[in-house]
Amino acid sequence: MARNYLVDFTRQGVDQMLRWRRLSGSGKSFQPDSRLHLWLVSLVLCICLTSGCTSTRYLSLRDVRNNALATSLGLSAKDGPEISERTVHTLRRFALEDRYHADAGRCFAHIRKRVNEHPDADLIYALSELSYVEGKKAELEGRLGAALNHYGISLTNSYDYLFSEDLENTRNAYDPQFRAVCDLYNESLEDTLRLLCTDNKIEPGKTYKINTPDREFVVRAEMRGQWGADEFDHYEFVSDYEIETLRNRHTTFGLGVPLIAVRKPPSTPDEREKYYAEGLSYAVTALMRCVKPADGTRTGESSNCVLEFFDPLTANQIHLGDKWVPLETDLTAPLAFFLDSPEFRTRNKATEGLLNPNDLQKKRGLYMLEPYDPNRIPVLMVHGLWSSPMTWMDMFNDLRSFPEIRERYQFWFYLYPSGQPFWTSATELRSDLQSLRNAFDPTRQDSMMDQMVLVGHSMGGLVSRLQTIESGDDFWKIVSYQEAGTAQEALSKMRGPDAERNELVSTLFFKPNKSIRRVVTIGTPHRGSDFVNDYTRWLARKFIKLPTMAVLTGNRLASQNRRLFRDTEMLTVSNAIDSLAPDSPIFPVMMRAETSPDVKYHNVVGIIDNSFTSNDGDGVVDFQSATMTDVESELVVNAPHTTIHMIGKTIFEVRRILLEHLHEIDSGDRIASGDQQLVRPVAIQLQGNTDKKSSLVPVVITR
Fold first, then answer.
1. Secondary structure (3-state) at 137
2. What are phi and psi of 325, to 5 degrees?
3. Among candidate residues 316, 185, 176, 341, the one with its CA nearest the CA of residue 251
4. pTM, full prediction
5. Domains of the chain by start residue, with CATH
6. What CA–CA distance (Å, rounded) separates 595 from 470?
7. CA distances from 199 to 149, 193, 308 (A)
8. What is the pLDDT of residues 189-221, one digit of tens each?
9. CB–CB of 602/660 below 8 Å?
């Protein structure tokens, strides 16, 4: 209801602005009356109260956890869990129905003895299901030890059904029972982990002994991937949460329990830690390997198991027995969990970045939502005016769902004060990229760092494009009467403190970043935006608080160099709105500036009326301002400015560009290697613990 009110309220404001533009075009002056001023103030207050991520929830707790067996076994039925009709038929076929109802324990012992003598897939399935149902009953009654015993029996027998060699000829992967066994394995493993975690914190690298009425379980926990054994503070179960805001939920189906692993900061200081947000959470899949008792039977008194934690970004299949088995994964829930955390909300304030750039400077910087990988290409996403990294989450979530993308790319995000001029943000990004490279690759050995792709929305596209431009002295000429061919010459002509002179010169003289190979601009005002006019400028100057130091620096340099600067306004009062004015002298300079020959540009343009010739464009950026001629590709999509980068067509276009980039890189590698064609391995080996029996675990990325 509040959102609808704000929409109506904003529409009234748009009507007022259109009326102002007509008055301006007729030559009449703009005189805001008291009612209009009250409307403007009220609008800004409404925006401040309703914008940002404080009103957005990315996920919510379920009342009852998601369970694949809930329907088939009636787990929430009034009379408690019930076995399936197929298992009832199996009990009847083996004359076990009465025995089960009379004494479930003795029935289970009889089934175990029978399958040990004459392995039968139906009986093993029945034992797994019956044990799971009995475990649920015991848990509801508070008999947790008995519940853990039953879940363990269900887990080991479902694993037996899926991977025992002596069932190879009778096991049928097309039988619905096969998927039911997979569900029994997954749910019994999850219930086992839930019970274990109530009393213990499961830590990779440690061995646990679990004594139950029937047997002893010895469980060795192992981390598989690039994480450290003590990297995570705790785990959450994906099945406890429902996605609220992200448009798509990306999962894969197989074996294992999807988890949310909440990262904890390292105990020792590390300068790279500032690039990871506090409370970051990763997708993890837990899987249990069950080893037959030493005597080779199915009825031994001890079971040895290996509990493994896999990274689904690097491996979504594992080798069990002699088969490649897909993992059950969820990439979206851990992302939503982090976005919903207080730590992320404190960093991600779009309104603060617009109205008070000075405060956001403390949080400005590059951020990673997954561990840095020297073997994957960085994709840096740069938000636009009145926005933040949150605006990229739908694209990030969808792009990671493609195995070929997540295998080869890593995604970074830039947070900056969007209320300041975009050329100031571009200067800061140059510095921030240099600092990140020094932190992660000081010796410049990570070749993938030099294949970087920038994706910018709206004003972020201008910030991104400026990373690949040769300034020459063209930008200096915008503000100065006097010629200066180099940064050093400009410094020599200017009076003032060294730090302030260097800061200004670095904004006007710069080189292309040689690590960047492609730039994708989306809904970008390459020639400015007509949304910027006398009225929006007046409003912006009323409410946007430029950094105090920046204003003082500009005023001081302007006053000390009166005969040097032709346009002191750009040094003193420019904010983001001013910088986007179509009559700004910076746009013609950017359009004709020399760009790096190693960079390829791609462009996405929005329209809202299906007309390629309309000047309306996406509602904020005119079509003529958004289109470009020096690009490898340009896609026109029917979308408004604020959501153009969130729609499926745009996201799929970015995917196409990223795949094209990979093809070019791989083709170059093949040419460089001569007759030896580059072949990327399908299976890789991850080093685990030092135990000779399980130190190497084969994993694979599905293409």
1. helix
2. -120, 130
3. 316
4. 0.83
5. 67-198 (no CATH), 200-347+681-703 (no CATH), 351-478+506-549+579-671 (3.40.50.1820)
6. 6
7. 15, 10, 19
8. 999 999 988 766 788 888 888 787 777 888 899
9. no
